[in-house]
Amino acid sequence: MLRKWGENMVEARTPYFVKEISSLYSARGSLLVVESMPGIKYSEVVEVETASGETRYGQVIDVSKEATVIQVFGGVKEVDLKRSAVRFKGETFKLPLSLDMLGRTFDGLGRPMDGGPPIVPEDYADINGAPINPAARQPPSEFIETGISAIDGLNSLVRGQKLPIFSGSGLPHNRIAAQIVRQATVKGKEESFAIVFSAIGVTFDDARFFVKNFEETGALERTVVFINTASDPTVERIAAPRVALTTAEFLAWKHDMHVLVILTDMTNYCFHRDAEIILSDGSIVKIGDLVKKALENSRTSINLNKYSNLVQVVLGKIRKTTIASWDMLDQTVGEIVAVEKIKAPKTLVKILTRSGAELLITKDHKLLVDTEKGPQLVQASEIKPNMELYSIRKLKVKEIKAPYMLELLLPYSEEVFVHVKSDVLEKKLSRKYGSLRNSCRMLGIDYGLFRNSKSKRYYRLHEFLAIVLDLGLKLEEANKYIDYITTGGKEKIRFKSVKVSPLMLKILGWISSDGTIYENKSKGVYYVSFSSKNEGLLKEFIDAVKKLFNGVNIKILRNDNGTLIARINSKLLVLLFRMLKGCGGNELAELIKMPEKHISAFISGYIDGDGYISVTKGLIRISTVNRIKAKRIQLLLKRLGIQSRLIKRITGFRNSIIYDIIISDKYDIVKLSRKLTLSHKGKREKLKRLVEKKIACRRACSFYLAPKIASKLFKELRMKNKVKASFLGKANTVSEFENGKRRVSRITLLKWLRKMSKYVSDDPELFALISFVKGNYVLDKVMKVEYVKCNEEYVYDVTVTPTHMLIVENGIISSNCEALREMSAAREEVPGRRGYPGYMYTDLATMYERAGRIWSKKGSVTIMPILTMPDDDITHPIPDLTGYITEGQLVLSRDLHRKGIYPPMDVFLSLSRLMKEGIGPGKTREDHRDVFMQLYAAYAEGQHLRELSIIVGTEALSERDKKYLKFADEFEQRFIKQGEYEKRTIEETLDIAWDLLSIVPEEELKLIREEFIRKYHPKYRES
Q1: Is the pLDDT of residue 198 over 70?
Q2: Angle 342-240-822 (CA atoms, 0-180°, nearest 5)?
Q3: Phi and psi, residue 884, nearest 5°
Q4: Could you give the CA distance from residue 988 to residue 990 in angstroms, rounded to a whole number?
Q5: Lowest mean pLDDT among 330-334, 381-385, 588-592
Q6: Environment class of residue 1007 by beta-carbon count within 10 Å: exposed (0-12), middle (13-18) or buried (19+)?
Q7: Per-residue pLDDT reduced to its tens digit, 933-948
Q8: Euclidean distance between CA atoms 268 and 819, whole angstroms
Q9: Contact 907/937 with Cβ under 8 angstroms?
Q10: What does 779-827 look like in DSSP terms, one character per residue?
C-alpha cells in the first residue's frame, strides 16, 4: 500500500539524475542510516531496493557529513544492509492535485479510498509546502459563518485565520467538526467556498461517521476528505495534515477558492500507578514505582509546571532501562527513554478480560485490538465488551540464568557464616598481598578472623564472596573449599548444588501450594514444612530435600485430619526459600526470570501439592488465596507459552476468597503436559487421560482464534491462486470461515495454509499470511468495561523506543505515545517536554502558518485544528504551543457537556483575536461588536452571582441580581445550546442575543451604544 503511494507521488516526475549508494550502516524500526553524499537534500524522495527486488519509498529526514537518515515507509525489517541499494531521486514528495478532488475521499497520503478512479493531476506540489511570506500576507478581515452561535456571535472566524478547538476525551468535537463542514459558508454569492477535512489517527468508527455524515447531508460535494486511521503507520499521521494543507493551497491559490481546513485530531495517553509493566529481563515493576525511582535518582528531571506538577525525566541520563516491547508479530526489546508523571483525571477506564487481566488506564490510552482491518490501536474510551485484545502468547526473557544459592542469601549476609575446610584461601591471599594483614586491610576484613584455630575458621557470607571475587575464583571452584554453612546456631548444612536447580524449584512449588515457610525471630523458631495425605508424595519431598542439602533434620508429624507433615527446622532454609519465593508484591516475581525447565518444575510441584486435574471438566486448576501470587503464576505459564484464565470465587468456608488459574484450552493442556514432571501418581494418571481426551477434541480454542482479517486475506489468496476449498479441508467449513460466519483456530488455519503452499509457488502474500498466523500473540476477549473514580493524585506513562509499545498486565499489548513523539523517539532525539521533540513548536508553526491570504491571490486558507487535550490539560505541549502560534482558541467545557448543552463552548476560555477585524457593518451587522461585549459582561456577572448564591442563598439576592442569574441560565440554554443540525445565520444569532439582553435592565446595557438599543432591543423593535 505504501509502495503504491510512493509510485503515485513520483510517477511522471522522475528526474534525469539519480544518485545510488549501497553503503548502508544500520536499519532500525522505520529508519535507515546510510552513507552521506554531497547534494542530498532534506525531505528528498528515496527508493530502497531490497535483496528480494522489492522497492520501498522513503524520504530523507536528517543529513550530516557522517551519515544520512532515511524514513522508510513500511519499515526496514526486511532490509539486508549488505544486499540492498538506496537511490536518491533528487526531489521531494509531490502530491498529484486536481479540482476533481472535491467530493472525493482519500487516505492520509492522498490515495483514493472511495472506490473512485485515480485523480488525473493538473499539477504536483511538495507536501511540505512553506509558510506564507509575511510581506505577501494580507491581514484577515472577512467573516466566515459556521452557523454556530457560540462561534459566530462570540468568537467569529475570519478568512485566513488559525482558530483551533481545544477539546477533551468524550467531548463532542467530532460532531462539531462535522457540523462546521456541513454549515460553513462565506458571505457573497460570487465567491467559491470549499472545505478540506483531515481526520488524523481516528478510529474506524469515527472515520465511518465522518464519511457517512458528509455523504448524507450533501456536504461532500464541496469537501475534500482525508481519513487517516489509528492503525495506519506513524509517518502517515505526520504527513496527513501536510497533504490536506497542500490540497487547500492548490484550491485557494490556483482556483481562487476560499478554503476552510479542519484538522482533527492533532493530539492522540496513562496508567494507574499500580499497573505492572514487564522489563526485558522478566522483572515486574509497578509503573508508579518506576517513575518515582527515576525522579528520585535523576538530576535531570524537569518540572514542567509547578501548579500541575507535570514532570519528565530523561532516563538515558540515569541508566539504560530495557523493557519487554512489541514489534509487528513478536516480542522484542525496547528502551525506556523518558517517564511521565501527570495530574490524574477524575475517572479512569477499567477493562477486564477473559484471562482475568484488569487494566486501569486513562480514556485516551490505546490498546492493540483485533478488528476487521487487522490489529489496530484503539483508545480505551472506544473499547467495548466482546472486543479482543492482542496479548503475548509466550513471554520471552533476556539473558536467562539460574541464580547461585549464596547469591540469594546476600541480604542476610550478617547472619550467614561460611565455614571452610582448610587455609587454602588464606594462602592465596598472602601470595597476592604479601601477608594476611595486608589482604584484610585491602578487603576490609577483620584480621581477628585468622587468629582463630583452623577448626573455627569461618567468614560472614559477604566476606567470603569478597575473597572469592578478589582471587578471581568462580563459585563452582570456591564451593569445594566450603565445609558447611550456618546461621549462628547448631545446624550445619552443605549445599550439594552451587546454583538453584529445577529440583529446588519443585520443592518451592510443593511448599508454595501446600506448605509453610515460618519465621518467628522473637522466639527463634524457623521451619519449612510440606503437608500431604499422599505418603508417596511426602517421601518424594523428603528425598528431594536430602538430595540438595546435607545436614538437614526432617521431622514427620501427623495432624488431627490424618495429614502427614514433613517439617525442617532450619533457619538457613527458611532464609533461602523466602528469598527465592519473595513476598508481598514481589511474590514469585523472581521466578519469571528463571529458565523454562525451572519454571516447569515449580508448576509441577504446585500442581502436585494443591493442583486439581479434572478429566470430566477438561481442565487443570491451580488455586491460591493471594491474587498477586495468582497473577504471577499466570505469567509463569506465559513463560511456557501456556494461556490461562484467572477466576475469583467465594468458598462456603467463612466466605473466603479463592483465586483459580484455569488451563482448559486443548493446545495449552497438551503443551503443558509435555513440560510437567508430576510426582503425585494419581494426578499423573489423570493428566494422561485428560490429554488423550483433549487430543480427541475438535473444539476451536478461544485464545487461539484466528484474527478477523485472516478470513478475508485467506479468501483473496485462495481465489487468486485458484485453489479449491476441498483441497484444504472441509469445503463447508472453509466457506463459512471465508464469509465470516465461522471462526477457526489459528492452528486449523495454519494447516490449511501449509496445504495451500503445495499448490502455490513463491507467493509472498502466502508466506506473509503464514507469518501473521504464527505470530507470538493470542486474543484476549474484553468481558467488561467500566468507568471508575480515580483516587490517585497522578497517573504515569513511559516513552519506549523504538516501537513505542509495552507489555502490561498478563501480556496485554499497549501503546503510549502520540505520532510526533513516536517519530522523535525513533530518531533517538533527546526528548523535550513530555517526550516531544524540542522542535515541535517549529513543526506546528510550519503547518499553521500556511493559513492566510496573499495580496495577489483572490482565495484564502483558513485552518481550524481540533486538539484533544489529555485529561483536559490545557498545559499539554500540543495545545500549549498551538495557543502561541494561532490567533485564539475555542475551548470545550466538560461542565456544560454534563448539563447536556451542545456545543459545550467555554465562553470565558475561548478567544478569537481577529474577530474585531471580521465583524461590523458590511461584514456581519453593525451592532455585533457591542452585543458580544455586553453578552460577555452579563454572563460574567451571572456566573459571579451563581457562586455567591451558593454561599448566601438565592433569597438574599436583589431583584437585579436575580435577573442576571436568569440571564446566565437562559444564555446557556438558548444562545450556547443549539441543535446539531440547526444552522443559524449571524442575524438570527444576534437577534437571540438581543432577546436575552432584554432580561437585563436596560440601564445595565452600558457597553451598547444608545442608537443600537433603540434599533434592535425587543422593546423598541416590536413597537
Answers
A1: yes
A2: 35
A3: -70, -35
A4: 5
A5: 330-334
A6: middle
A7: 999 999 999 999 888 8
A8: 8
A9: no
A10: EEEEEEEEEEE---SEEEEEEEETT-EEE-GGGBEEE---HHHHHHHHT
Q: With cut-offs at 50, 70 and 90, classify the pLDDT of residue 1022.
A: low
Amino acid 188: pLDDT: 59
- Measure Cα distances from 734 to 232, 336, 711, 725, 813 in Å: 30, 44, 9, 6, 30
Higher pLDDT, 827 or 504: 504
SS3 636: helix
Q: Cell numbers of 927, please?
A: 451592532
H or E element that contains 196 = strand 193-202
Omega into 802 within 30° of 0, i.e. cis? yes
Element (H, E) at 552: none
Give φ, ψ of 305 to 5 degrees.
-160, 115
N- to C-terminal Cα separation, the chain:
68
pLDDT class of 22 with cuts at 50, 70, 90:
confident
Grid cell digits, residue 122: 493538473
Q: For residues 320 and 315, what is the distance between their CA atoms, to the nearest angstrom?
A: 7
Three cell numbers, residue 397: 526473557
DSSP-assigned beta bridge partners for residue 145: 185
Which residues make Cβ contacts (< 8 Å) with residue 505, sequence separation at least 6? 580, 591, 594, 598, 599, 601, 602, 605
Task: Determine contact, residues 923/143, Cβ cutoff 8 Å.
Answer: yes
What's the grid cell of residue 527? 521451619
Give counts: helices (H), strands (E), the chain: 33, 50
**Between helices 502-514 and 571-581, what is the axis angle to 10°?**
90
Q: Is the peptide bond before 233 cis (omega within 30 degrees of 0)?
A: no
Reported pTM = 0.62
Sequence-separated (6 or more) residues with CB below 8 Å from residue 667:
701, 704, 745, 747
| Strand positions, DSSP E, 270-372 | 276-278, 284-286, 302-305, 310-314, 321-327, 330-343, 347-353, 358-361, 366-371
**Total count of residues recorded for the chain:** 1023
| Contact (CB, 8 A) for 142 and 158 | yes
From CA 155, how far away is CA 169, in angstroms rounded?
Answer: 23
The span from the CA of 123 to the CA of 664, in Å, is 62
> 309 near 303, Cβ under 8 Å?
yes
Q: What is the mean pLDDT of residues 658-668?
A: 93
Predicted confidence (pLDDT) per residue in 702-723, tens digit = 899 999 999 999 998 999 888 8
Q: What's the one-letter identity of residue 275? A: A
Cell 432591543 found at: 1017
Of the pLDDT bands very low, low, confident and very high (cuts 50, 70, 90), residue 263 is confident
Q: Convert the pLDDT of each residue in 558-610 to its tens digit.
A: 888 888 999 999 999 999 999 999 887 789 999 999 999 999 999 999 999 98
d(CA 350, CA 612): 31
